[in-house]
Each structure stands twice: as structure tokens, then as C-alpha cells.
């Protein structure tokens, strides 16, 4: 990309992000201003503003890179080998046993050190 194209893209992205911030601000201020209205109507208005803001944000360079990242993450999740139920239960029980054991060890060390300090002080 040439530097003039990058500058135009940067200025265009700044303008688009300003629109996104403006839409979010309109949603927040409008929700506060129309607090007496039905929650359903306010929710619909906020959802519409959020969709429009998301659409505008996806047309920026950062938005496109985020969309690409999300697509690649979806592809990677399909490749994951998920553990079986038995492996999950066994791992959970091992973690719980280690947590209980370490909490008892730390409780014992804390009690011993508290006894030593109280013996030295008194």
C-alpha cells in the first residue's frame, strides 16, 4: 500500500471509529434520557444501535482483522480433540484433591508459624 492510501485508510478508519463511538454514546444517553419508556423499546433501540455500530466497526482495518481472527478461531476449535467425560471427571477429582491437600499444608504451615511468632513475642 502506498503512503497516501494508508493515510486515507487511516483517516477513514478514524471517521468510522468516531461514528461507532457516537452510536454508543447515543445508546447510553438515549437509554438514560428515555428511562421512563418501556424496557422493550429501549432494548430494541440499543440492539439496533449495537448492530449498526458493529457493522461500521467491521469495515475498518481493525474490524477486518478481528473478523479474520474470529473465523480462524472457529476453524481451530473444530480441530480440538475434546476430552471424554471420564477424563474430565478424573482430572477434576485430581485437581480437587491437590487443592484440598495444599490448603491443609498451607493451613499447617500458617498455624505453625503463628505459634512460633506468638511464642517469640510472649
From TrEMBL:
Keywords recorded for this protein, A-Z: Cell membrane, Membrane, Protein transport, Translocation, Transmembrane, Transmembrane helix, Transport
Family per similarity comment: Belongs to the SecE/SEC61-gamma family.
Gene3D superfamilies linked to this entry: Preprotein translocase secy subunit (1.20.5.1030)
Cellular compartments annotated: Membrane
Keyword Transport belongs to the record: yes
Transmembrane domains' residue ranges: 14-33, 39-58, 93-117
Species, as recorded: Marinomonas colpomeniae
Function according to Swiss-Prot or TrEMBL: Essential subunit of the Sec protein translocation channel SecYEG. Clamps together the 2 halves of SecY. May contact the channel plug during translocation.
InterPro entries per UniProt: SecE_bac, SecE_sf, Translocase_SecE/Sec61-g
Protein name per UniProt: Protein translocase subunit SecE
SUBUNIT field: Component of the Sec protein translocase complex. Heterotrimer consisting of SecY, SecE and SecG subunits. The heterotrimers can form oligomers, although 1 heterotrimer is thought to be able to translocate proteins. Interacts with the ribosome. Interacts with SecDF, and other proteins may be involved. Interacts with SecA.
Record-linked Pfam families: SecE
Leader sequence residues: none
Amino acid at each position: 500500500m502506498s503512503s497516501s492510501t494508508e493515510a486515507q485508510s487511516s483517516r477513514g478508519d478514524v471517521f468510522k471509529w468516531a461514528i461507532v463511538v457516537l452510536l454508543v454514546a447515543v445508546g447510553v444517553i438515549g437509554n438514560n434520557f428515555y428511562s421512563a419508556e418501556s424496557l422493550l423499546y429501549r432494548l430494541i433501540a440499543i440492539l439496533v444501535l449495537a448492530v449498526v455500530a458493529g457493522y461500521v466497526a467491521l469495515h475498518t482495518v481493525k474490524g477486518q482483522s478481528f473478523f479474520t481472527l474470529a473465523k480462524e478461531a472457529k476453524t481451530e476449535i473444530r480441530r480440538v480433540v475434546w476430552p471424554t467425560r471420564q477424563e474430565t471427571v478424573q482430572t477434576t477429582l485430581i485437581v480437587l484433591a491437590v487443592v484440598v491437600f495444599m490448603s491443609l499444608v498451607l493451613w499447617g504451615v500458617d498455624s505453625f508459624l503463628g505459634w512460633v511468632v506468638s511464642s517469640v513475642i510472649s
